[in-house]
Design goal:
The complex is a heterodimer of chains A (226) and B (305).
Chain A: H1 3-10, H2 13-22, H3 25-32, H4 47-66, H5 73-85, H6 90-117, H7 126-148, H8 153-167, H9 173-180, H10 188-220
Chain B: H1 7-17, E1 24-30, E2 35-41, E3 47-51, E4 54-58, E5 69-75, E6 81-87, E7 93-97, E8 100-104, E9 115-120, E10 126-131, E11 137-140, H2 150-154, E12 161-163, E13 175-181, E14 186-192, E15 198-202, E16 205-210, E17 221-226, E18 233-238, E19 244-248, E20 251-255, E21 266-272, E22 277-283, E23 289-292, E24 298-302
Antiparallel strand pairs in B: 1-2, 2-3, 3-4, 5-6, 6-7, 7-8, 9-10, 10-11, 11-12, 13-14, 14-15, 15-16, 17-18, 18-19, 19-20, 21-22, 22-23, 23-24
The chains are: A mainly alpha (226), B mainly beta (305).
């Protein structure tokens, strides 16, 4: 960001208004002072930021869908039909949510490939790499649990497969599967588990991981390519 | 110009001009009484019940226009009884109530012919769906608030059919089958078009699942069932030659011998939950009812109407 732009934003009325109430001007001015290195001014260095943008799109569209979705075996299919047919622009919101989820998965993997190929995971950024891996796992968790929510045959089969796979874990398999559901075949209990994770547990986890990820990027800066 | 027709040629013309008869099958297994309930609806709208001695006509013919489709549902809330629904060519739904045909709700405003599908949930709630020739799936009595169950809305006066999004982009006419497994609450839609392409509905959209390789003959009929032990779904398609094709991961595999009888056929499944047995049944155009044996042959249980 150029000095002139920084000065323009620093002197803006809205920032003055905010600063009088929240004392945020020093933080905003400091945030704008971080230059983007010349080597990072390439499109593939934007993949992480784009992943965040798609995540925010998912949060907004997800919150809208949450107003109408019912996490019960009977209510799931009916409420999705309701969203698609009756809710104003519901089909559009759900479509955006669906495609943004796919785009986020692709961007997330592409971002990690970029980080790997440019060696940005090396010392002293190992912890941030681990946080990135955990973010990918969390994203996959969102993705998979999202497929279960329509509770159609595909959702049911995904839930059944996950419970079946958990049961195969030595020693703690039954315990792990029991956390998802106590009944066979999987039904409303499992749907509730995936719903709770999709809208409560995983958002909490991803928020903590994203916070850590961005704080570390801020502190360590963007790594120089190899 | 005068036509000079011999008696033979006149007879031939009459035979060629005679409409091809067709019949629709409604069959369900009643676990409480350990019996199959077989109904069929002929071209004229006459309902027939299959019994040990053969078919017997039930009630007066269904009013309304053809072609019609029939759906027989096991009423899980009242043991040993069934709901019989008929959807006529004008989109009017009827339910058999004693010896009368009770019109239900407003007519469906889609493209005829319609195919009727549905299920009865564990608490007795009935969900009815129809597929029109435009490939659109319709739901009967869809409540505006999803928290309201279908049972509440479906029998209210003035109930309407409402289309759901994303029609099938295929070749009409279609056949529809709806599976529902109460313990999991999962509903599975399957449809087959006039070219034998099988469609299944996931996540609110139809997906093409299997296609024929120019081996079958239209019209096609579709059926399916849950194997109760594994909850795997088995889908079968029957063509006009009476050949049953089983869907094996997106490929059709011939199952058994072609069903004897006159086309078109309507295929159905009978799931004997108590015995863990599954039967494929077929009704031919004249009312011949047959069940596939283990060796792939067909056993005739009921002759023509």
């Amino acid at each position: 960001m150029s000095e002139a732009t920084r000065k323009k934003i620093g002197d803006s009325r809205w920032l003055k208004w905010l600063d009088e109430r929240l004392r945020v001007k020093p933080w905003v001015v400091e945030a704008m002072r971080k230059p983007v290195h010349p080597w990072a001014r390439k499109w593939y260095y934007c993949l992480g930021g784009l992943t965040l943008v798609t995540f925010l799109v998912l949060v907004v569209t997800g919150l809208i869908l949450l107003q109408h979705y019912r996490p019960t075996p009977v209510g799931a299919a009916e409420s999705i039909a309701h969203i698609m047919n009756d809710v104003w622009c519901g089909w559009l919101v759900r479509g955006i949510h669906h495609w943004a989820a796919n785009v986020m998965m692709v961007l997330c993997v592409a971002h990690m490939i970029r980080v790997f190929l440019t060696g940005a995971y090396k010392k002293p950024r190992e912890l941030n790499w681990i946080a990135g891996v955990l973010l990918l796992v969390t994203t996959v968790g969102f993705y998979v649990s999202g497929f279960v929510l329509p509770w159609d045959q595909r959702g049911f089969e995904i839930a059944s497969s996950i419970v079946g796979a958990l049961k195969q874990i030595p020693i703690v398999g039954d315990l792990a599967a029991g956390i998802v559901t106590s009944v066979t075949p999987v039904g409303g209990e499992a749907l509730g588990f995936f719903f709770d994770n999709h809208v409560i547990v995983l958002p909490l986890v991803i928020f903590i991981l994203l916070l850590f990820h961005f704080v570390m990027i801020r502190r360590q800066g963007i790594a120089e390519p190899l | 110009m005068r036509l000079h027709l011999s008696k033979t040629s006149f007879l031939l013309i009459v035979i060629l001009a005679a409409p091809v008869s067709s019949a629709r099958l409604g069959a369900v297994y009643i676990p409480d009484s350990d019996a199959d309930v077989i109904f069929a609806l002929d071209d004229s709208g006459q309902l027939h019940q299959g019994e040990a001695g053969g078919w017997s006509a039930v009630n007066n013919p269904c009013p309304g226009a053809g072609p019609r489709d029939i759906l027989v549902l096991n009423r899980t809330d009242v043991p040993g009884t069934v709901n019989i629904f008929v959807l006529d060519g004008a989109g009017q739904l009827y339910e058999v109530n004693g010896d009368t045909w009770l019109p239900q709700g407003d007519p469906l405003a889609g493209e005829s012919p319609y195919r009727l599908g549905g299920y009865a949930a564990a608490d007795g709630a009935v969900a009815l769906f129809a597929l029109d020739s435009g490939g659109r799936l319709w739901q009967y009595g869809k409540p505006s608030d999803p928290s309201e169950r279908l049972a509440v809305a479906s029998y209210a006066p003035g109930t309407t059919w409402e289309t759901v999004t994303n029609p099938i982009i295929g070749t009409p006419p279609y056949d529809l089958n709806v599976l529902h497994y109460a313990p999991t609450g999962v509903t599975f839609f399957m449809a087959v078009d006039a070219e034998g392409a099988l469609y299944t509905r996931f996540d609110g959209s139809w997906e093409i699942h299997a296609v024929t390789h120019d081996t079958g003959a239209a019209p096609y009929s579709v059926t399916g069932f849950y194997q109760l032990e594994t909850l795997d779904i088995f889908v079968m398609v029957m063509d006009a030659a009476g050949q049953v094709y089983s869907d094996e991961s997106g490929s059709y595999v011939n199952l058994g011998e072609p069903c004897p009888g006159a086309p078109p056929f309507d295929v159905g499944s009978l799931v004997h939950e108590n015995e863990d047995c599954y039967y494929i049944a077929a009704l031919d155009g004249t009312g011949g009812f047959r069940v596939m044996r283990e060796d792939g042959g067909w056993e005739t249980f009921l002759d023509s109407f």
